[in-house]
Design goal:
This is Acetaldehyde dehydrogenase. By secondary structure, this protein is an all-alpha fold. It contains two helices and no strands. The relative contact order is 0.08.
Length: 44
């Protein structure tokens, strides 16, 4: 039964992350190329 609970928890975590990814994608969609470049430079 515990494996089943872990599976359900993992599925819910994946759904939560997908929702957050959609929110982030919607926000970044309006960014300029310069803003995107700045983000990428700060990541490395």
């Amino acid at each position: 039964m515990e494996n089943f609970d872990k599976d359900l928890r993992s599925i819910q975590q994946a759904r939560d992350l997908a929702r957050l990814g959609k929110v982030a994608a919607d926000k970044i969609a309006d960014y300029t190329e310069e803003q995107i470049d700045k983000i990428l430079r700060n990541m490395v």
